[in-house]
From TrEMBL:
GO terms for cellular component: external side of plasma membrane; integrin complex. Residues 1-30 form the signal peptide. This is Integrin alpha-2 domain-containing protein. Gene3D superfamilies: Integrin alpha, N-terminal (2.130.10.130). It comes from Scyliorhinus torazame. The keyword Repeat applies. Keywords: Cell adhesion, Glycoprotein, Integrin, Receptor, Repeat, Signal. The lineage of its organism: Eukaryota, Metazoa, Chordata, Craniata, Vertebrata. InterPro entries: FG-GAP, Int_alpha_beta-p, Integrin_alpha, Integrin_alpha_N. PANTHER family: INTEGRIN ALPHA, INTEGRIN ALPHA-8. FG-GAP repeats lie at residues 32-97, 113-174, 179-231, 298-363, 364-422, 426-489. PROSITE patterns: FG_GAP (PS51470). GO terms for molecular function: integrin binding. It is a single-pass type I membrane protein.
Length: 509
Protein backbone atom coordinates (compact mmCIF):
# COMPACT_ATOMS: atom_id res chain seq x y z
CA UNK A 1 0.00 0.00 0.00
CA UNK A 2 1.21 3.52 -0.56
CA UNK A 3 3.41 4.84 2.17
CA UNK A 4 3.72 8.53 2.73
CA UNK A 5 6.35 10.02 4.95
CA UNK A 6 6.03 13.64 5.88
CA UNK A 7 9.05 15.47 7.09
CA UNK A 8 6.76 18.11 8.56
CA UNK A 9 3.21 17.99 9.67
CA UNK A 10 0.82 20.42 8.13
CA UNK A 11 -1.02 22.62 10.50
CA UNK A 12 -4.63 23.32 9.65
CA UNK A 13 -4.14 26.71 11.19
CA UNK A 14 -2.81 28.15 7.98
CA UNK A 15 -5.23 26.52 5.64
CA UNK A 16 -6.21 29.55 3.65
CA UNK A 17 -2.69 30.72 2.97
CA UNK A 18 -1.13 30.08 -0.41
CA UNK A 19 2.39 30.58 0.70
CA UNK A 20 2.78 26.88 1.52
CA UNK A 21 4.17 24.67 -1.15
CA UNK A 22 4.06 20.92 -0.92
CA UNK A 23 6.65 19.24 -3.05
CA UNK A 24 6.26 15.57 -3.82
CA UNK A 25 9.66 14.20 -4.54
CA UNK A 26 9.88 10.97 -6.52
CA UNK A 27 10.38 8.03 -4.17
CA UNK A 28 11.03 4.38 -4.85
CA UNK A 29 8.45 2.66 -7.05
CA UNK A 30 7.78 -1.09 -6.77
CA UNK A 31 5.01 -3.56 -7.45
CA UNK A 32 3.52 -5.66 -4.78
CA UNK A 33 0.46 -7.57 -3.68
CA UNK A 34 -2.11 -5.33 -2.07
CA UNK A 35 -2.72 -6.79 1.37
CA UNK A 36 -5.20 -4.12 2.40
CA UNK A 37 -8.11 -5.33 0.30
CA UNK A 38 -7.99 -8.96 -0.79
CA UNK A 39 -11.17 -10.19 -2.46
CA UNK A 40 -12.58 -12.92 -0.22
CA UNK A 41 -14.75 -15.83 -1.37
CA UNK A 42 -16.49 -18.17 1.07
CA UNK A 43 -17.87 -21.68 0.75
CA UNK A 44 -20.08 -23.79 3.00
CA UNK A 45 -18.56 -24.34 6.42
CA UNK A 46 -16.67 -27.61 6.65
CA UNK A 47 -16.71 -28.10 2.86
CA UNK A 48 -12.92 -27.55 2.59
CA UNK A 49 -13.66 -24.82 0.05
CA UNK A 50 -10.21 -23.65 -1.09
CA UNK A 51 -8.52 -27.07 -0.97
CA UNK A 52 -7.76 -26.46 -4.66
CA UNK A 53 -7.92 -23.23 -6.67
CA UNK A 54 -7.28 -22.02 -10.20
CA UNK A 55 -7.98 -19.15 -12.53
CA UNK A 56 -10.44 -19.75 -15.36
CA UNK A 57 -10.01 -17.72 -18.51
CA UNK A 58 -12.34 -18.87 -21.30
CA UNK A 59 -11.42 -15.87 -23.47
CA UNK A 60 -8.88 -13.05 -23.45
CA UNK A 61 -11.14 -10.59 -21.68
CA UNK A 62 -12.38 -12.65 -18.77
CA UNK A 63 -10.68 -14.23 -15.80
CA UNK A 64 -12.71 -15.97 -13.12
CA UNK A 65 -11.92 -18.30 -10.26
CA UNK A 66 -12.45 -22.02 -9.71
CA UNK A 67 -12.47 -23.33 -6.16
CA UNK A 68 -12.55 -26.97 -5.12
CA UNK A 69 -14.53 -27.94 -2.01
CA UNK A 70 -13.96 -31.71 -1.68
CA UNK A 71 -16.29 -32.17 1.28
CA UNK A 72 -19.19 -30.11 -0.07
CA UNK A 73 -22.61 -31.61 -0.47
CA UNK A 74 -24.18 -31.52 -3.90
CA UNK A 75 -27.61 -32.16 -5.37
CA UNK A 76 -26.54 -35.66 -6.47
CA UNK A 77 -29.19 -38.04 -5.10
CA UNK A 78 -28.10 -40.13 -2.10
CA UNK A 79 -24.48 -38.92 -2.28
CA UNK A 80 -23.01 -37.60 0.98
CA UNK A 81 -20.18 -35.08 0.79
CA UNK A 82 -19.28 -35.99 -2.77
CA UNK A 83 -17.38 -32.73 -3.19
CA UNK A 84 -17.79 -29.90 -5.67
CA UNK A 85 -16.00 -27.29 -7.70
CA UNK A 86 -17.31 -23.74 -7.50
CA UNK A 87 -17.28 -21.06 -10.18
CA UNK A 88 -16.72 -17.59 -8.74
CA UNK A 89 -16.88 -14.53 -10.93
CA UNK A 90 -14.29 -11.91 -10.34
CA UNK A 91 -15.34 -8.93 -8.24
CA UNK A 92 -13.02 -6.78 -6.17
CA UNK A 93 -15.23 -7.21 -3.13
CA UNK A 94 -15.69 -10.94 -3.59
CA UNK A 95 -18.85 -12.46 -5.04
CA UNK A 96 -21.13 -15.45 -4.52
CA UNK A 97 -19.88 -18.71 -6.04
CA UNK A 98 -21.95 -21.47 -7.63
CA UNK A 99 -21.34 -25.19 -8.00
CA UNK A 100 -20.38 -26.35 -11.47
CA UNK A 101 -22.59 -29.33 -12.43
CA UNK A 102 -19.81 -31.69 -13.51
CA UNK A 103 -21.84 -34.70 -12.41
CA UNK A 104 -25.49 -34.59 -11.36
CA UNK A 105 -26.05 -38.32 -11.08
CA UNK A 106 -26.04 -40.78 -8.22
CA UNK A 107 -24.05 -44.01 -8.23
CA UNK A 108 -24.46 -46.10 -11.36
CA UNK A 109 -25.63 -49.66 -10.78
CA UNK A 110 -25.10 -53.12 -12.21
CA UNK A 111 -27.09 -56.31 -11.86
CA UNK A 112 -25.37 -59.03 -9.89
CA UNK A 113 -27.26 -62.33 -9.60
CA UNK A 114 -30.45 -60.51 -10.55
CA UNK A 115 -30.14 -57.70 -7.97
CA UNK A 116 -29.12 -54.11 -8.60
CA UNK A 117 -25.94 -53.07 -6.84
CA UNK A 118 -24.01 -49.83 -6.99
CA UNK A 119 -20.99 -50.19 -9.24
CA UNK A 120 -19.39 -47.06 -7.80
CA UNK A 121 -19.32 -45.03 -4.59
CA UNK A 122 -19.35 -41.25 -4.91
CA UNK A 123 -19.97 -40.38 -1.25
CA UNK A 124 -16.80 -38.96 0.33
CA UNK A 125 -14.97 -39.22 -2.97
CA UNK A 126 -13.19 -35.85 -2.57
CA UNK A 127 -14.32 -34.43 -5.91
CA UNK A 128 -12.60 -31.04 -6.21
CA UNK A 129 -9.48 -32.11 -4.33
CA UNK A 130 -7.79 -30.99 -7.54
CA UNK A 131 -8.95 -28.58 -10.24
CA UNK A 132 -7.06 -27.11 -13.19
CA UNK A 133 -8.04 -25.09 -16.21
CA UNK A 134 -6.36 -24.48 -19.53
CA UNK A 135 -8.04 -21.72 -21.52
CA UNK A 136 -11.67 -22.88 -21.75
CA UNK A 137 -11.01 -26.45 -20.59
CA UNK A 138 -11.47 -27.45 -16.96
CA UNK A 139 -10.62 -30.72 -15.23
CA UNK A 140 -11.44 -31.63 -11.64
CA UNK A 141 -10.85 -34.93 -9.89
CA UNK A 142 -12.13 -37.13 -7.07
CA UNK A 143 -9.10 -39.17 -5.98
CA UNK A 144 -11.11 -41.12 -3.39
CA UNK A 145 -13.82 -42.21 -5.82
CA UNK A 146 -14.30 -45.97 -5.33
CA UNK A 147 -15.68 -48.51 -7.72
CA UNK A 148 -16.96 -51.99 -7.18
CA UNK A 149 -15.11 -53.71 -10.04
CA UNK A 150 -16.95 -56.31 -12.09
CA UNK A 151 -15.94 -59.16 -9.80
CA UNK A 152 -18.58 -61.34 -8.19
CA UNK A 153 -17.30 -60.51 -4.73
CA UNK A 154 -18.02 -56.90 -3.90
CA UNK A 155 -14.95 -54.71 -3.61
CA UNK A 156 -14.39 -51.02 -3.15
CA UNK A 157 -11.29 -49.91 -4.98
CA UNK A 158 -10.22 -46.22 -4.71
CA UNK A 159 -9.37 -45.83 -8.38
CA UNK A 160 -10.19 -42.09 -8.50
CA UNK A 161 -11.97 -40.32 -11.30
CA UNK A 162 -11.89 -36.97 -13.10
CA UNK A 163 -14.43 -34.87 -14.96
CA UNK A 164 -13.68 -32.66 -17.93
CA UNK A 165 -15.76 -29.60 -18.90
CA UNK A 166 -15.49 -27.63 -22.13
CA UNK A 167 -17.50 -25.02 -24.06
CA UNK A 168 -18.24 -22.88 -21.03
CA UNK A 169 -19.46 -25.81 -18.93
CA UNK A 170 -21.93 -27.09 -21.52
CA UNK A 171 -20.11 -30.35 -22.37
CA UNK A 172 -18.84 -32.80 -19.78
CA UNK A 173 -17.09 -36.15 -19.83
CA UNK A 174 -15.77 -38.46 -17.14
CA UNK A 175 -12.21 -39.75 -17.29
CA UNK A 176 -11.21 -42.58 -14.96
CA UNK A 177 -8.11 -44.20 -16.45
CA UNK A 178 -7.52 -46.54 -13.49
CA UNK A 179 -11.01 -48.02 -13.62
CA UNK A 180 -9.40 -50.64 -15.78
CA UNK A 181 -9.22 -54.39 -15.79
CA UNK A 182 -6.09 -54.17 -13.60
CA UNK A 183 -7.82 -54.43 -10.24
CA UNK A 184 -6.66 -54.66 -6.62
CA UNK A 185 -3.52 -53.14 -5.11
CA UNK A 186 -1.19 -54.94 -7.46
CA UNK A 187 -2.96 -53.28 -10.38
CA UNK A 188 -4.64 -49.88 -10.55
CA UNK A 189 -7.27 -50.52 -7.87
CA UNK A 190 -5.72 -48.06 -5.40
CA UNK A 191 -4.54 -45.61 -8.05
CA UNK A 192 -6.36 -42.49 -6.75
CA UNK A 193 -6.20 -40.96 -10.20
CA UNK A 194 -6.29 -37.18 -10.12
CA UNK A 195 -4.49 -36.87 -6.79
CA UNK A 196 -2.37 -34.35 -8.71
CA UNK A 197 -3.19 -32.57 -11.92
CA UNK A 198 -1.75 -30.26 -14.57
CA UNK A 199 -2.00 -29.32 -18.25
CA UNK A 200 0.68 -29.15 -20.91
CA UNK A 201 0.80 -25.97 -22.99
CA UNK A 202 -0.94 -27.93 -25.78
CA UNK A 203 -3.85 -28.56 -23.43
CA UNK A 204 -3.11 -32.22 -22.71
CA UNK A 205 -4.14 -33.44 -19.30
CA UNK A 206 -1.46 -34.80 -16.94
CA UNK A 207 -2.55 -36.61 -13.82
CA UNK A 208 -0.91 -38.48 -11.00
CA UNK A 209 -2.20 -41.70 -9.47
CA UNK A 210 0.16 -42.36 -6.53
CA UNK A 211 -1.51 -45.61 -5.42
CA UNK A 212 -1.17 -47.82 -8.50
CA UNK A 213 0.93 -51.03 -8.38
CA UNK A 214 1.25 -51.35 -4.58
CA UNK A 215 1.64 -47.60 -4.24
CA UNK A 216 4.48 -47.35 -6.73
CA UNK A 217 2.23 -44.78 -8.34
CA UNK A 218 1.98 -43.63 -11.91
CA UNK A 219 1.60 -40.64 -14.21
CA UNK A 220 -1.02 -40.63 -16.95
CA UNK A 221 -1.52 -38.21 -19.82
CA UNK A 222 -4.32 -37.85 -22.37
CA UNK A 223 -5.75 -35.25 -24.76
CA UNK A 224 -8.97 -33.50 -23.70
CA UNK A 225 -10.54 -33.97 -27.12
CA UNK A 226 -9.65 -37.65 -27.09
CA UNK A 227 -11.46 -37.89 -23.75
CA UNK A 228 -14.54 -36.11 -25.12
CA UNK A 229 -14.50 -37.87 -28.47
CA UNK A 230 -16.71 -40.94 -28.32
CA UNK A 231 -17.43 -40.51 -24.61
CA UNK A 232 -20.29 -42.65 -23.29
CA UNK A 233 -21.10 -42.60 -19.58
CA UNK A 234 -22.25 -46.24 -19.79
CA UNK A 235 -18.80 -47.38 -20.83
CA UNK A 236 -17.11 -47.83 -17.45
CA UNK A 237 -13.86 -49.24 -18.74
CA UNK A 238 -12.54 -47.25 -21.60
CA UNK A 239 -9.05 -46.74 -22.94
CA UNK A 240 -8.83 -43.25 -24.41
CA UNK A 241 -7.05 -42.90 -27.74
CA UNK A 242 -3.51 -41.61 -27.40
CA UNK A 243 -3.50 -42.03 -23.61
CA UNK A 244 -0.06 -42.75 -22.12
CA UNK A 245 0.82 -44.17 -18.72
CA UNK A 246 4.00 -44.94 -16.83
CA UNK A 247 4.12 -48.68 -16.22
CA UNK A 248 4.74 -51.07 -13.37
CA UNK A 249 8.28 -51.27 -11.92
CA UNK A 250 10.06 -53.96 -9.83
CA UNK A 251 8.78 -54.51 -6.28
CA UNK A 252 11.47 -52.37 -4.67
CA UNK A 253 9.61 -49.36 -6.09
CA UNK A 254 6.53 -50.20 -4.00
CA UNK A 255 5.27 -47.43 -1.69
CA UNK A 256 7.12 -44.73 -3.66
CA UNK A 257 4.04 -42.60 -4.51
CA UNK A 258 4.99 -41.57 -8.05
CA UNK A 259 2.57 -38.86 -9.13
CA UNK A 260 2.00 -37.37 -5.69
CA UNK A 261 2.63 -34.10 -7.54
CA UNK A 262 2.94 -33.25 -11.25
CA UNK A 263 4.00 -30.29 -13.40
CA UNK A 264 5.23 -29.71 -16.96
CA UNK A 265 8.18 -27.85 -18.48
CA UNK A 266 10.62 -27.73 -21.38
CA UNK A 267 13.96 -29.35 -20.65
CA UNK A 268 15.23 -30.83 -23.91
CA UNK A 269 15.31 -27.77 -26.13
CA UNK A 270 12.47 -28.77 -28.42
CA UNK A 271 8.79 -27.87 -28.29
CA UNK A 272 7.53 -31.14 -26.81
CA UNK A 273 7.16 -30.44 -23.10
CA UNK A 274 8.34 -32.95 -20.53
CA UNK A 275 6.41 -34.05 -17.44
CA UNK A 276 7.74 -33.49 -13.92
CA UNK A 277 6.56 -35.80 -11.16
CA UNK A 278 7.17 -35.94 -7.42
CA UNK A 279 7.97 -39.34 -5.85
CA UNK A 280 8.16 -38.29 -2.16
CA UNK A 281 8.68 -41.76 -0.71
CA UNK A 282 11.01 -43.02 -3.42
CA UNK A 283 14.78 -43.47 -3.11
CA UNK A 284 14.54 -45.14 0.33
CA UNK A 285 12.17 -42.36 1.47
CA UNK A 286 14.67 -39.61 0.59
CA UNK A 287 12.20 -38.71 -2.14
CA UNK A 288 12.96 -37.76 -5.72
CA UNK A 289 11.51 -35.85 -8.61
CA UNK A 290 11.62 -37.24 -12.14
CA UNK A 291 11.54 -35.56 -15.52
CA UNK A 292 9.54 -37.84 -17.80
CA UNK A 293 9.48 -37.94 -21.59
CA UNK A 294 5.82 -37.30 -22.46
CA UNK A 295 5.96 -39.37 -25.65
CA UNK A 296 7.28 -42.70 -24.36
CA UNK A 297 6.84 -42.02 -20.60
CA UNK A 298 10.46 -42.92 -19.81
CA UNK A 299 12.29 -41.28 -16.92
CA UNK A 300 15.09 -39.12 -18.25
CA UNK A 301 16.42 -37.26 -15.20
CA UNK A 302 16.03 -37.39 -11.41
CA UNK A 303 16.56 -34.87 -8.63
CA UNK A 304 16.97 -36.67 -5.29
CA UNK A 305 16.15 -35.41 -1.81
CA UNK A 306 18.78 -35.07 0.88
CA UNK A 307 16.91 -36.18 3.98
CA UNK A 308 14.79 -39.21 4.72
CA UNK A 309 11.07 -38.52 5.23
CA UNK A 310 11.39 -34.85 4.29
CA UNK A 311 8.68 -35.44 1.65
CA UNK A 312 10.90 -34.11 -1.14
CA UNK A 313 8.53 -33.91 -4.11
CA UNK A 314 5.40 -33.23 -2.06
CA UNK A 315 5.01 -30.41 -4.55
CA UNK A 316 6.75 -29.50 -7.81
CA UNK A 317 6.61 -26.36 -9.93
CA UNK A 318 8.25 -25.06 -13.09
CA UNK A 319 9.14 -21.47 -13.92
CA UNK A 320 11.99 -19.60 -15.60
CA UNK A 321 13.26 -17.78 -12.52
CA UNK A 322 16.46 -16.22 -13.90
CA UNK A 323 15.01 -15.14 -17.28
CA UNK A 324 17.45 -17.06 -19.48
CA UNK A 325 14.68 -18.66 -21.52
CA UNK A 326 15.14 -22.06 -19.83
CA UNK A 327 12.57 -23.58 -17.48
CA UNK A 328 13.74 -24.15 -13.91
CA UNK A 329 12.39 -26.68 -11.39
CA UNK A 330 11.15 -25.98 -7.85
CA UNK A 331 10.63 -28.80 -5.35
CA UNK A 332 8.98 -28.57 -1.94
CA UNK A 333 10.01 -30.76 1.02
CA UNK A 334 7.64 -29.49 3.75
CA UNK A 335 8.78 -32.00 6.39
CA UNK A 336 12.50 -31.21 6.07
CA UNK A 337 14.23 -31.02 9.45
CA UNK A 338 16.91 -28.47 10.08
CA UNK A 339 19.60 -29.05 12.68
CA UNK A 340 19.66 -26.09 15.00
CA UNK A 341 22.74 -24.77 16.76
CA UNK A 342 21.76 -26.78 19.86
CA UNK A 343 21.98 -29.93 17.73
CA UNK A 344 18.26 -30.60 17.83
CA UNK A 345 16.33 -31.32 14.66
CA UNK A 346 13.43 -29.00 13.91
CA UNK A 347 10.88 -29.63 11.20
CA UNK A 348 10.81 -26.39 9.21
CA UNK A 349 10.43 -27.41 5.54
CA UNK A 350 12.62 -26.58 2.56
CA UNK A 351 12.14 -25.51 -1.05
CA UNK A 352 14.77 -26.33 -3.68
CA UNK A 353 15.34 -24.39 -6.89
CA UNK A 354 17.18 -26.17 -9.73
CA UNK A 355 18.25 -23.72 -12.43
CA UNK A 356 18.52 -25.23 -15.90
CA UNK A 357 21.96 -24.03 -16.99
CA UNK A 358 21.70 -25.32 -20.49
CA UNK A 359 19.36 -27.81 -22.08
CA UNK A 360 18.97 -30.67 -19.68
CA UNK A 361 21.80 -29.60 -17.40
CA UNK A 362 20.92 -28.26 -13.96
CA UNK A 363 22.88 -26.32 -11.38
CA UNK A 364 23.12 -27.55 -7.80
CA UNK A 365 20.01 -26.54 -5.94
CA UNK A 366 19.47 -23.22 -4.26
CA UNK A 367 17.88 -23.99 -0.88
CA UNK A 368 15.24 -21.86 0.79
CA UNK A 369 14.77 -23.00 4.36
CA UNK A 370 11.57 -22.47 6.34
CA UNK A 371 11.80 -20.81 9.71
CA UNK A 372 8.79 -22.05 11.64
CA UNK A 373 8.61 -25.45 13.32
CA UNK A 374 5.71 -27.50 11.90
CA UNK A 375 4.74 -24.59 9.62
CA UNK A 376 4.96 -26.87 6.57
CA UNK A 377 6.94 -24.36 4.50
CA UNK A 378 6.87 -25.62 0.91
CA UNK A 379 3.46 -27.31 1.03
CA UNK A 380 2.60 -25.12 -1.94
CA UNK A 381 4.96 -23.45 -4.41
CA UNK A 382 3.32 -21.23 -7.01
CA UNK A 383 4.93 -19.50 -9.97
CA UNK A 384 3.62 -15.92 -10.01
CA UNK A 385 4.93 -14.71 -13.39
CA UNK A 386 6.73 -11.39 -12.98
CA UNK A 387 4.95 -9.80 -10.04
CA UNK A 388 7.13 -6.71 -9.66
CA UNK A 389 7.83 -6.23 -13.37
CA UNK A 390 11.61 -6.35 -13.10
CA UNK A 391 12.06 -8.94 -15.82
CA UNK A 392 12.40 -11.95 -13.50
CA UNK A 393 9.64 -14.35 -12.52
CA UNK A 394 8.68 -14.53 -8.87
CA UNK A 395 7.16 -17.27 -6.70
CA UNK A 396 4.95 -17.70 -3.66
CA UNK A 397 5.60 -20.34 -1.00
CA UNK A 398 2.88 -21.45 1.40
CA UNK A 399 3.49 -21.97 5.13
CA UNK A 400 -0.07 -23.16 5.89
CA UNK A 401 0.43 -23.98 9.58
CA UNK A 402 2.92 -21.25 10.44
CA UNK A 403 2.44 -17.66 11.43
CA UNK A 404 0.80 -16.13 14.45
CA UNK A 405 -1.60 -18.53 16.16
CA UNK A 406 -0.95 -21.01 13.29
CA UNK A 407 -3.09 -18.92 10.99
CA UNK A 408 -0.83 -19.76 8.05
CA UNK A 409 1.09 -17.41 5.82
CA UNK A 410 2.47 -17.00 2.32
CA UNK A 411 5.96 -15.76 1.46
CA UNK A 412 6.76 -13.99 -1.81
CA UNK A 413 10.24 -14.47 -3.27
CA UNK A 414 11.60 -12.46 -6.19
CA UNK A 415 13.69 -13.95 -8.97
CA UNK A 416 16.89 -12.42 -10.32
CA UNK A 417 19.72 -13.36 -12.66
CA UNK A 418 21.22 -16.02 -10.36
CA UNK A 419 18.11 -17.51 -8.76
CA UNK A 420 15.76 -16.39 -6.02
CA UNK A 421 16.54 -13.58 -3.61
CA UNK A 422 16.73 -15.52 -0.37
CA UNK A 423 14.83 -13.00 1.73
CA UNK A 424 11.11 -12.82 1.00
CA UNK A 425 10.01 -9.51 -0.48
CA UNK A 426 6.59 -9.76 1.09
CA UNK A 427 4.70 -11.81 3.67
CA UNK A 428 0.95 -12.39 3.51
CA UNK A 429 -0.40 -13.21 6.95
CA UNK A 430 -3.33 -15.59 7.39
CA UNK A 431 -6.65 -13.79 7.53
CA UNK A 432 -8.59 -16.27 9.63
CA UNK A 433 -8.07 -17.59 13.13
CA UNK A 434 -7.76 -21.23 14.08
CA UNK A 435 -11.16 -22.56 14.98
CA UNK A 436 -11.76 -26.27 15.45
CA UNK A 437 -9.03 -26.81 12.85
CA UNK A 438 -6.24 -24.61 11.52
CA UNK A 439 -7.38 -22.48 8.55
CA UNK A 440 -4.54 -23.75 6.35
CA UNK A 441 -4.01 -20.35 4.72
CA UNK A 442 -1.46 -20.97 1.96
CA UNK A 443 -2.07 -24.71 1.67
CA UNK A 444 -2.99 -24.02 -1.96
CA UNK A 445 -1.74 -21.19 -4.15
CA UNK A 446 -2.24 -20.21 -7.75
CA UNK A 447 -0.62 -17.24 -9.45
CA UNK A 448 0.37 -15.96 -12.84
CA UNK A 449 -2.96 -14.64 -14.15
CA UNK A 450 -4.10 -11.03 -14.27
CA UNK A 451 -7.63 -11.11 -12.91
CA UNK A 452 -8.38 -7.37 -12.83
CA UNK A 453 -6.64 -6.56 -16.13
CA UNK A 454 -4.23 -4.01 -14.68
CA UNK A 455 -1.33 -5.81 -16.41
CA UNK A 456 0.06 -7.22 -13.15
CA UNK A 457 -0.36 -10.91 -12.27
CA UNK A 458 -2.43 -11.75 -9.20
CA UNK A 459 -2.47 -14.54 -6.59
CA UNK A 460 -5.19 -16.83 -5.21
CA UNK A 461 -4.62 -18.18 -1.69
CA UNK A 462 -6.76 -21.06 -0.43
CA UNK A 463 -7.56 -21.66 3.25
CA UNK A 464 -9.54 -24.88 3.22
CA UNK A 465 -9.77 -25.11 7.02
CA UNK A 466 -11.73 -21.86 7.02
CA UNK A 467 -13.50 -22.76 3.75
CA UNK A 468 -12.30 -19.46 2.32
CA UNK A 469 -10.20 -18.14 -0.53
CA UNK A 470 -8.49 -14.75 -0.85
CA UNK A 471 -7.41 -13.10 -4.09
CA UNK A 472 -4.53 -10.68 -3.77
CA UNK A 473 -3.98 -8.23 -6.57
CA UNK A 474 -0.63 -6.82 -7.57
CA UNK A 475 -0.37 -3.10 -7.97
CA UNK A 476 2.14 -0.32 -8.04
CA UNK A 477 3.43 0.70 -4.68
CA UNK A 478 4.87 4.18 -4.57
CA UNK A 479 6.91 5.23 -1.59
CA UNK A 480 6.90 8.99 -1.55
CA UNK A 481 9.12 11.33 0.37
CA UNK A 482 6.90 14.35 0.82
CA UNK A 483 8.69 17.50 1.74
CA UNK A 484 7.07 20.62 2.98
CA UNK A 485 8.71 23.79 1.85
CA UNK A 486 7.77 27.19 3.05
CA UNK A 487 7.64 30.01 0.60
CA UNK A 488 8.96 32.48 1.43
CA UNK A 489 11.46 30.40 3.28
CA UNK A 490 12.04 33.05 5.89
CA UNK A 491 8.89 33.95 7.72
CA UNK A 492 8.49 37.54 8.59
CA UNK A 493 6.18 37.66 11.62
CA UNK A 494 5.21 41.20 10.69
CA UNK A 495 3.95 40.16 7.28
CA UNK A 496 0.51 38.94 8.26
CA UNK A 497 -0.86 38.09 4.86
CA UNK A 498 -2.58 34.81 5.71
CA UNK A 499 -6.07 34.58 7.04
CA UNK A 500 -7.11 31.92 9.51
CA UNK A 501 -10.00 29.80 8.35
CA UNK A 502 -13.32 30.92 9.78
CA UNK A 503 -11.96 34.12 11.24
CA UNK A 504 -10.72 37.46 10.19
CA UNK A 505 -7.45 37.14 12.08
CA UNK A 506 -4.39 37.64 9.95
CA UNK A 507 -1.32 35.60 10.71
CA UNK A 508 2.14 35.42 9.19
CA UNK A 509 1.77 31.80 7.92
CA1 LIG B 1 11.10 -31.22 -24.64
CA1 LIG C 1 15.90 -20.32 -16.21
CA1 LIG D 1 10.05 -10.19 -10.66
CA1 LIG E 1 -3.79 -7.78 -11.84
Amino acid sequence: MPVRRYRHTLSSRAASCHSLLLLLLPGCVAFNLDVSQPAVYSGPQGSHFGYSVDFYSPDQNTVNILVGAPKANTSQPRIVEGGAVYFCSWAAGGAPCSQIPFDKSSNRTIKVNGTKEPVEFKSNQWFGATVKSHKGKVVACAPLYHWRTFKLTQEKDPVGTCYVAVHNFSDYAEYSPCRSGLEDPEGQGYCQAGFSLDFTQDGNLVLGGPGSFYWQGQVITAGIFDILNGYDFRNLQRRVNGERQTGVAPADYDDNYLGYSVAVGEFTGDSQQELVAGIPRGAQAFGYVAIINATDMTFILNFTGEQMASYFGYTVAVSDINNDGLDDVLVGAPLFMDRESDGKLKEVGLVYLYLQEEEFLFKDAQRLLGTEVFGRFGSAVAPLADLNQDGYNDIAIGVPFGGEDRRGKVLIYNGHSTGLISKPSQVLDGLWSSDSMPPGFGFTLQGGSDIDKNEYPDLIVGAFGASKVAVYRARAVVTVDAQLQLNPSIINPENKSCQLLGSETLVSW
